[in-house]
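Exercise 7.
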Amino acid sequence: MTRKLGWFDILRLGLVQAAIGSLVVITTSTLNRVLVVELALPAILPGVLVALHYFVQVVRPRFGYDSDLGGRRTPWIIGGIATLAAGGVGAVLATCLMPINLALGIALAVLAFIVIGLGVGASGTALLVLMSKRIAPQRLAAAATVTWLMMIVGFIVTSVIAGRMLEPFSLTRLVETTVGIGLVALLVTVLAVYGIERDIAEVPTAPAQAERKDFVAVLREVWAEPHSRRLTSFIFVSMLAYSAQDLILEPFAGAVFGLTPGETTKLSGTQNAGVLLGMLFVAVICTTRASSRIGSIRSWTLFGCVSSAAMLVGLAVAGLVGANAALKPLVFGLGLANGAYAVAAIGSMMGLVGRGRGEREGTRMGLWGAAQAVAFGLGGILATGSVDLVRAMTGSVAESYGLVFAAEALLFVLATVFAVRLSRLEVRNDDDQNVDGLPSYATGVHGG
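Solution. The predicted structure, written as tokens, is:
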């Protein structure tokens, strides 16, 4: 029996997520500002590049499948971080090239962001599979919280350090800073995963090797599993709703309620504080009361989705009636609900990855990760585009944002339906066979 990871090990692996966050923030945030402000290029350029790095992650199932074949996740984590760092440096070099040759610089940036997406997909998928297989079920919610918080830590620390290193700003300093952050992230990752799989060399048995199928066949098998298919639908719809609000919340507060840029930034901080508290609360409850209904990851998934929908409807109504006093409480409540949902959703992925035929964990996690990434890529584009479209049709700013918030609420309601269907899956004599005649397993997901 393999050793389960302790809290120290979980924190170690959380450092990998911090490394991913540090590299992502320099390429999606800092470069965004440089392209738009210093180089005076259209804002749609970084928007498309960031969306591209999400869409590329549709290959996550293939990465997961290949890591299943080898049985070890560490090489994929380290290789993914190295690829991500290389892509980040490439994106910065492309930025430096744009003032000289715009077309060539954009072409290089497109290639670099494809590499960034591949690096995030490879490292992120392998990391979640490794944690899922080695963490006790009652600790899954806490582990999900740690990974999310460590990513935020990576954002914050990198932003502070990069901000100081980039003063006074120059493109040369930008290259040096990015190379330095990439090397540190790679070193931290190597130290974090060193020896963590030493006692679980998953060498497949001879029968398992004989039964191996090609990637397409394995992906079809995973899709045929009811819980995999329903969880994929849930993740896509809920993450679409979750990501769609990010790019329109601050503009909504400014355009409809007249808040200044400083005030909308504080409002965003209020939401993030709610997210943090929601995550911590659910993590503690699911860890300490795993055997009870209130400690069920499934229950918090449903609560997070329903509450998020309610807060979004509240924001839509507040904008239409001009209820300024309700704005801050609603945004904080949305953060709490989002935090609860996010931890429960990741915990569900980690808890279900081992259900079904063996040696498919990476493929399942890759499928779910691909659904999440594509949803994130589409969310911002659809939300901002819909606001512009509705505003052009109605001429009303409040109505345009209100209708989009209402649409996001409906997506969360639809996600709740998928979550309920997922939780009702049980092993039955008539329904417990998948396409290969193998048990499909019950999938009422609990923390314990």
